[in-house]
Every structure is written in structure tokens, then in C-alpha cells.
Write a structure and sequence with these properties.
single chain, 25 strands, six-stranded mixed β-sheet, seven-stranded mixed β-sheet, Aldehyde Dehydrogenase, Chain A, domain 1, binds NADPH dihydro-nicotinamide-adenine-dinucleotide phosphate
């Protein structure tokens, strides 16, 4: 039996208030676990984006927000973290019923990471070099020189549906830490928790500092990233849309951070401890039904271990329970939509056609009581070659491609033979060997004997077409500031300013 939930209506969050769409239209948000409508959300237009950007601009230009002292700003970030903790249950629920993430994951990872992110950035804000003094130069004359770091202004955040509220905080937290204001455009599948988050944050920041406008990417997203009063754009999503956003942002030369797709290589070395490498590799690829950009989707296995690894992976994967994400016994929930399910199934067909050997899963699953949900079995292909479509394109579903290698040099070459470079991993008992492999992997994050270990104090982002810039950690703060050099001459006399002679000669 399917449980009915109340269908709530959510408006935009602009200038500290809930605001209906200028068109008065709404769109439906569905639960991917059972296909039910769970909310109606204001369908934004370019006019709504304009209202939100103007509110953010005014909050940046007119109010004291950007001039707040680091200590006070750190206190605001701590206050936000406590508010998120206070509202954790509601946030987790809204996220689960719209994104299809398991309750187990969202409550034990996402929401705790969000709290910790604001607290970590609060600490970094206290130590941040907002003003650095340079040494007095010997030439051409003495001067005081400073490097100041200042907020950029109005920041647009365009966010995806896989980890919607957590990824929104990767952009909101550093933006606020550095004194910017923000307008978020959440993915249309999953705007609920982000809208609630804006209300929560707004209870401790001035109106206009945080705004959320929901609606279609092609209209609301494009209007936001093109808006002349937006100074920075941060995006997480597909490489294709990232390219479009970069193009639109380039018209007014906006500072841009992009976190895009991945096809992350995971290399098991001959001496790896398979008792952790096998569950670890499955954790790396099947968490959130494979809908994580840094999932380890290409597994490189040496000849010597190949059969043992395949057998071990299949044994473990076939025990994973696919089911309703609200059921605490569920290991793998649904994928986000019927469209995404069909895309994944078409990749599975492509893998079979190209000659890969399907050794586990590969089919849609019907979950009792959730018949309209979008579920796929954890799927493993053996005998994949690195040039196959399933080894080169981002599938964003629970599909692992296992590739055989006989020589580590070849494995590293194949690992790097991808347009992407978001993450990579290596499993071995020899840490020195692991560091050597890690140095040679073209990826923004390398995990050794682990996966998915994102840290709020470590940078995250991609090499190659996986993106530009870094989120989280101290590096994320740099991405939300601009640098100003201030020079103060200490030479009051005209006749000691001999560098003026470069223009005036002997006159
Ligand atoms: P998109 O890249 O289309 O969506 C991400 C965000 O961008 C959403 O908020 C979307 O809005 C918005 N958007 C879409 N088009 C535009 C535009 N022209 N201008 C501005 N904003 C826009 O991802 P999809 O939802 O289509 O997923 C497709 C694929 O992208 C997945 O299969 C996966 O491969 C990849 N992906 C990668 C993610 C990552 O973490 N790197 C996350 C999500 C997807 P709206 O929802 O309204 O369309």
C-alpha cells in the first residue's frame, strides 16, 4: 500500500519572504520512490530572477553585511549551523521525498556534513587573510602595500538534483563566509529542502542575503547566470549545461566555478586487501544509486585477481537491497526520474551490444508498494574495454564497468584516458606505491583504500572537463573573494620621486 502525503505548496524565497511566482504558476515535484506528487512549487520566470537578484544586490550594496567583522561573520555561520541542526528532521524528510536518497544516507551524512561545513568555514573565516601587508620595497621608493580580499558581490548558485541541499551549501556557505549575497536556482526535481534551507538561513542573516528562485533551467537558470547584476556563478551538474553556463556567464565576464561530470577510475593493485577493496569499490559506485559525480565507475583489476574480484563483487552486490529510501533496511533507492531510468537502461543495452559481459543486475526493479518508482538493480559489467561507451560516458546510475589490466602503466594510461578528471582511487597495502600512482592520476581528488571521503576542510573539484575551481576547504573561500592591491606612497617630496622622470624627463 502506498502512503499518501500532504501536498504542500512552496513559493520562491526572496528578500526574506515567501513570494509566489510572477506568473502565479506552479510545477509538481514527484517522489521518485513512488511517483506521487509531494509538492507544488512556484514556477519562476526571468521577472522573478530579476526581483531576487535586485534584492541580493541591495543587500550587498546597501547594508552592513559585506563589512561585517570576521568574528561576527563566523558567529553568523555558527548560528546557521545550529539552525540547520535544529531543523534537521524536516530537511532530511524533504530531501528524501524528492531526491530519492535513502533516509540512512541523508540523515547520517548529508545533514551532518552541512552543519560541519558552516562550522568549518566559520573557523577558517576567523583565520582568513582578509588583509596582508607586503614588505616595504627598496625600489623605486618606500611604500606601504596591502593585499585585501573582498567579497565579489551577488553570487548565483545553480544546483543539481543528486545531493540538492548539501551541494547548495557548498556554494552558500563560502559565499556568506566572505560577505557575498546569493541567489540559488535549485534543480526542478528537488527544490524543496533548498527552499526550506533559505528560510532557515534567513532567520540569522539580513533580508536579501539568501534567495531561492525555482523553475526551469532553460528559463530561470539562463536568466540568472546571464543577469548583468550577478557577479559570480557557481554550478554543479552536467558538463553540457556547464558549457552553456560558461558561455552565458562569459558575456559579462563573470567569475565562474563549475563542478561537472565524472567517470572516475578506481585501480586495484595486485597487493590490495580485497576484504576492504571489494566492498569499498561497491560503496564507491553504488551509493545513491550511482548518482554521484565522483562515483568510481571504472574499476581496473589486474589479470591475476580478475576472476576472484568479479566473483567477490557479484557476491556482495547481489545482496544489496533495492527499495523504498524511507525504509531503513534499504541499501539502494530509486534513480531520480523515469527519464534517468531510461537513460541508464539504454547504457546497459549499449554495454551488452558492445560486447561487455553482464555479470550482475542490468534490469529494472519493481518495489512492492512503490510500483511507480524508478528502480534499477546494481549492475556490473565484466570484460569492459576502456574505449566502450559505458567506460567513457557518464551514466549516473548503478552501473560498474570492470576493466582488466596486465601492466600498471597501462592501467594508469587508461585511467587518464577520459575527458573527465573529478576523482580517482587506488587500493594497495603499499602506501608509497599508492602515492606514486596518485601523483600520476589526473583527478582533483584521489582516495587511497577508500572512496567518497569528502571533507569540509579539503578542496573538491575537477581536472579537465570535470570543472573549474574548487569547493569546500580554504580554497572555496578564495573562490568567493576578489583581490585588491592597495599602494600608499611613503615619499612626500616631489624631488625624491625619481620615477616620475620616466614621463617628465628632465622638465
Ligand atoms: P543538468 O546539468 O541539466 O541540471 C543541473 C542544474 O542546471 C539544474 O538546476 C537545472 O535546472 C539547471 N539547468 C539546466 N539547463 C540550464 C541552462 N540552460 N542554464 C542554466 N541552468 C540550467 O542535469 P540533468 O538534470 O539534466 O542531468 C543530466 C546529467 O547530468 C546526469 O545524467 C548526470 O550525468 C549529470 N549530472 C551531474 C551532476 C553532478 O553532480 N556533477 C548532478 C546532476 C546531473 P532544471 O532542473 O530546471 O533543468
Amino acid at each position: 500500500m502506498t502512503v499518501q502525503v500532504d501536498v504542500q505548496t512552496f513559493y520562491h524565497f526572496i528578500n526574506g519572504k515567501w513570494e509566489p511566482a510572477s506568473s502565479n504558476e506552479t510545477f509538481d515535484v514527484y517522489n521518485p520512490a513512488n511517483g506521487q506528487v509531494v509538492a507544488k512549487v512556484a514556477k519562476g520566470t526571468a521577472a522573478d530572477v530579476d526581483r531576487a537578484v535586485k534584492a541580493a544586490r541591495e543587500a550587498f550594496d546597501q547594508r552592513d553585511w559585506k563589512n561585517m567583522k570576521p568574528k561576527d561573520r563566523a558567529n553568523v555561520l555558527y548560528a546557521i549551523s545550529y539552525k540547520i541542526a535544529e531543523h534537521a528532521e524536516e530537511l532530511v524528510y524533504l530531501e528524501a521525498i524528492s531526491s530519492g536518497g535513502t533516509l540512512r544516507r541523508i540523515s547520517s551524512i548529508d545533514v551532518l556534513q552541512m552543519v560541519d561545513l558552516f562550522q568549518t568555514l566559520a573557523k577558517f573565516t576567523l583565520e582568513y587573510p582578509f588583509s596582508e601587508t607586503l614588505p616595504v620595497p627598496p625600489f623605486p621608493g618606500p611604500a606601504h602595500n596591502f593585499v585585501w580580499r573582498e567579497p565579489i558581490g551577488v553570487c548565483a548558485a545553480v544546483t543539481p538534483w543528486n545531493l540538492p541541499m548539501w551541494i547548495a551549501t557548498w556554494k552558500i556557505a563560502p559565499a556568506l563566509a566572505m560577505g557575498n549575497t546569493v541567489v540559488v536556482k535549485p534543480a526542478s526535481y528537488t527544490p524543496l529542502a533548498t527552499l526550506k534551507l533559505a528560510e532557515i538561513i534567513s532567520s540569522v542573516v539580513p533580508p536579501g542575503v539568501i534567495n531561492v528562485v525555482a523553475g526551469p533551467g532553460a528559463e530561470v537558470g539562463e536568466a540568472l547566470v546571464s543577469h548583468p547584476q550577478v557577479d559570480k556563478v557557481a554550478f554543479t551538474g552536467s558538463t553540457e549545461v556547464g558549457r552553456r553556463i560558461m558561455e552565458l556567464a562569459s558575456k559579462t565576464i563573470k567569475n565562474t566555478t563549475l563542478e561537472l561530470g565524472g567517470k572516475s577510475p578506481n585501480i586495484i593493485l595486485e597487493d590490495a586487501d580485497l576484504s576492504i577493496a571489494l566492498p569499498g569499490s561497491l560503496f564507491g559506485v553504488f551509493l545513491h544509486s550511482g548518482q554521484l559525480c565522483e562515483s568510481g565507475t571504472r574499476l581496473f583489476v589486474p589479470d591475476k585477481l580478475y576472476d576472484e574480484v568479479i566473483q567477490g563483487l557479484v557476491g556482495l552486490a547481489s545482496k544489496l537491497k533495492v527499495g523504498n529510501p524511507l525504509d531503513p533496511t534499504t541499501d539502494i533507492g530509486p534513480v531520480i526520474s523515469k527519464k534517468q531510468k531510461e537513460t541508464i537502461l539504454s547504457y546497459i543495452e549499449a554495454g551488452k551490444k558492445e560486447g561487455a559481459e553482464l555479470v550482475c543486475g542490468g534490469k529494472e526493479v519493481k518495489v512492492m508498494g512503490c510500483e511507480e518508482g524508478h528502480y534499477i538493480e546494481p549492475t556490473i559489467f565484466a570484460n569492459v574495454t576502456n574505449d566502450m561507451k559505458i567506460a567513457q560516458e557518464e551514466i549516473f546510475g548503478p552501473v560498474l564497468s570492470v576493466i582488466r589490466y596486465s601492466d600498471l602503466e597501462d592501467a594508469i594510461k587508461m585511467a587518464n584516458d577520459s575527458i573527465y578528471g573529478l576523482a580517482a582511487g587506488v587500493w594497495t597495502k603499499d602506501v608509497n606505491k599508492a602515492y606514486d600512482v596518485a601523483r600520476r592520476l589526473q583527478a582533483g581528488t584521489v582516495w587511497i583504500n577508500d572512496w567518497h571521503m569528502l571533507r569540509n576542510d579539503a578542496p573538491f573539484g575537477g581536472y579537465k572537463q570535470s570543472g573549474i575551481g574548487r569547493e569546500m576547504g580554504k580554497h572555496s573561500l578564495d573562490a568567493y573573494t576578489q583581490v585588491k592591491h592597495v599602494h600608499t606612497s611613503m615619499v612626500p617630496e616631489l624631488d625624491r620621486r625619481n620615477w616620475y622622470g620616466i614621463l617628465f624627463g628632465q622638465n
